[in-house]
Design a protein that fits this description.
Length: about 100
């Protein structure tokens, strides 16, 4: 059985999973703009997320202590993503903002 708990704004704050091995709780935190900023799993591992003023995710640090970064163009398309190992993925778009290419670099 899984229980989900939300705050007064409808934001998921806690999930409790009940099974034969025990209860596992995951916690969620948000900033004032309602962006998810932190997830803490049942083992205490923390993922943090950061955003720019437009609410676009600009960074994430996962439980393996890997930091991800994200870059956008002037209209909000994701144009580059770097994973925690330092690998880049570049995206380009056509005039209608449709993804046209992805290149690893």
């Amino acid at each position: 059985m899984t229980e989900r708990f939300a705050d007064a704004f409808g934001q998921l704050r806690r999930v409790v999973e009940h099974n034969s091995n025990g209860n596992y709780t995951t916690l969620y935190a948000y900033d004032l703009a309602s962006n998810l900023t932190q997830v803490t799993d049942a083992a205490g591992n923390v993922t943090t997320l950061s955003y720019d003023l437009l609410g676009r995710k600009t960074g994430m640090t996962d439980p393996n202590m890997e930091t991800w970064t994200y870059q956008y163009d002037g209209v909000g398309n994701l144009t580059a993503q770097q994973d925690g190992r330092g690998w880049w993925l570049y995206m380009s778009y056509d005039a209608l903002n449709r993804l046209t290419t992805e290149v690893e670099g």
